[in-house]
Amino acid sequence: MLTLYTAGQEDPNKCRALLTEGTWSHTVDSPHDAQKWEPNGCRMVEYSGGAIHDCLVGRKFVLAGDSTIRQIFWAAARKLDPKLAAAELKEIVAADEKHRDLSFNIEGVRLEFIWDPWLNSTTLKDTLDAFHALPGSTREPTLVKKEEESPALIVLGSPGLWAARYGGEDYMTLFKDGINTVSSYLSLASQGSTTRSSSLSALPSRNEGYSSALNHILLTPVQEPAYSALSNKRTETITPERIDEMNDYLSHLPSNQTSHVVWAFNRMMEESGQSFESDGLHVDDNIADRKIDIVLNSHCNNPAGMEDRSFKGTCCVEEPSNYLFNLALILLCAVMLYTPRAQSMPKFIRPELLTATRDILVTLAWCWLCDGTLQFSKVERHYHPGAFIVICLFWLVGSSSVLHKLVGSAGEVPWSAGKDPKAEIVNNNEDHSFLSRHQTDEIKGLMQGIILLYHFNYASQTLWVYKLVRVLISMYFFLSAYGHTLYLLRTDDYSFKRVAVVLFRTNALSALLPFMMGTSYSSYYFAPAVTFYYLLIYFMLRTLKESNYDPWPLGMKVLATASFTSMFITTPGFLEMTTDVLGTVFRMSFDVQELRFRLALDRYIVFVGVTVASLVHTARLSDSQEVFTTKGSPRLFDSGRFRFWIICSAGLALFLFFTQSGLSSKQSYNAAHPYISWIPILALVTLRNLYAPAQKMFLAIPAALGRISLETYVLQYHIWLGGDATARLTLGGFENASFPLFLIEKALITTLFIGMAALTHRATRTFTVTLSEAGFLGFLAALWVGNLIYT
């Protein structure tokens, strides 16, 4: 494993990976992905016209070579403006002027093609003489004016095909002459790239971005044609032996020159099936598109990442620096130094608070190390139906292997965010009742395990899996609403301290991570959504709280609040106004459309949770009306158990049949989900409690995961997955490791992930135990000041 990791660190910027190796992805449900080229160990992005414009505006992009390079020129032109490119190409074909220079200008980006299959033209020499590796802002003032002439990017086509076709026995001499003409410029480009050090930051708008991008020269290898499709005349001269000899010459150039050779172009041909046009020389347009993407990734990825932290490309990027990471390490050392001396320090500096601070700092630093630096690689995820189903079955079977039986009473209020003085009001039998704390932890853990596997395996690309997981996510909101409502009804605790404890417990991690990772609070959507619905429930129950114990007035409040919530979420303007206020006061950024979509999906299920909690609370207040109790077997339970089994099972079956057969798109299912998600959720929680002895038992493994489900959901973005939960995290060199090593690597990453989640859970609970109203306000003030400084 150490050898593989070390091998991965030999190419830390992943430029070699981009230019050398890769594979075509093959997925079941996405035809587009079947044409997606993926370098080994990094993520390549497909550049749009807008992204190309951002990278090259005001600059010149030059390609020189034969007709195979001209294809790449037209691929770039199509990306910038497909209609204009098609029109110009049609004019050139009609004029029968193929062998000439071309130019294409669109919105400040200038593309130029120099027809020079031998790489010996005066035009190319002038272009290369004007080239400077460093951008104007980093060169001497005397060179700044000349920067206007220097291309940002040059792609040179090796003269191999023309040398083989027309060079006769001197083909190798002609080929070497062409390469020797440009080789010194490749060395010049390498010298420029070594004079630059990393200047990236996790914080946005603190760098020069595209204006500081280095200029680049790339050389293509001699393209290996489809020999069987070549014409008879071409077959006589363009032979595998000649092509291999010329590419072998390129591979033995000095390292500072061969590092500019885009070997991946030929690798594409080896990996792809029918990639050529009928002449056997020119590739299909989709291959040409991927070739230009490789070129653009090599030049634009680094400045694009500097401009936008959310940029997903990880090929050819520099190691970013983050002074907040360095500050976290300094604070961590200080905390570890002073923790043993805490007993002799002021009372407000308690040892357990120092330990909790240490755990939070360790987690934040680990997040940055995994997802912010280049120590871990990020690669694309792919959905494999069989593997996903098998691993989910393993999880369910493994979860059932450890069964615990409750004895006595629980010493903690269900759903409390920390130990609470009101915990003494809990009756000894309540933790054995309907939807006890152990049950809800078990359910949340089972769901969280499947959701983590769902994200890891990119199963959202499959509709039937997406529908099922959406139900699981809604069940979490149901359980959250159920727990908070039950607590408020039982304790009548509407104090500000209680609100502070819940808000801190829910949001602390999601509020701190953006500072370290350069993300936004709303990107961890679960915490904002849970917070939104908790505040709704809190204010609903606090308003006219004396009516909370009368079913009819409470039902009216629930209906009124649900109607208001639906209108607030779905009507344009309300969310926008709220997020504008939050943005002004707290300098927080929100994607309003994404927030609306997320909140709308679960806008009714939370009120189903409120209703169920009020019914359970009412039943507990009257022993004669208890339902599904573990004390004996009431008549309703005995006589109605089979009936409940039939009703719940039928409800589940009908739900599955209707959603899987009748809703054929994500859009149609999302439209129906808010109105039907309560059916499987109520059926499942009822089935879980039908058998009275089962209320005293719970599955220990998922219950343990359920207790840290909030932390695992948030931390998966950076230390189990990568790229803000859009890529698979892997150690360097493990991308193509054998299956046993793959399992070992995943076990290691998963163990660290669960460990960090447990540490963070323990730390936030420690803080909530001692959290005061003033402490919570101080935390908000610190976040406000931090956002003012860093945004």
TrEMBL record:
Organism: Xylaria grammica
Locations listed in the record: Membrane
Keyword annotations: Glycoprotein, Membrane, Transferase, Transmembrane, Transmembrane helix
Transmembrane segments: 464-487, 523-541, 553-575, 604-621, 642-663, 675-691, 739-759, 771-790
Protein name in UniProt: Cas1p 10 TM acyl transferase domain-containing protein
GO biological process terms held by the UniProt record: carbohydrate metabolic process
InterPro entries, A to Z: Cas1_AcylTrans_dom (IPR012419)
Keyword Transmembrane helix appears in the UniProt entry: yes
Residue span, Cas1p 10 TM acyl transferase domain: 427-769
Domain of life: Eukaryota
Principal location class: membrane
Membrane topology, as annotated: Multi-pass membrane protein
Protein family per UniProt: Belongs to the PC-esterase family. CASD1 subfamily.
Any one GO molecular function term: transferase activity
GO cellular component annotations of the record: Golgi apparatus; membrane
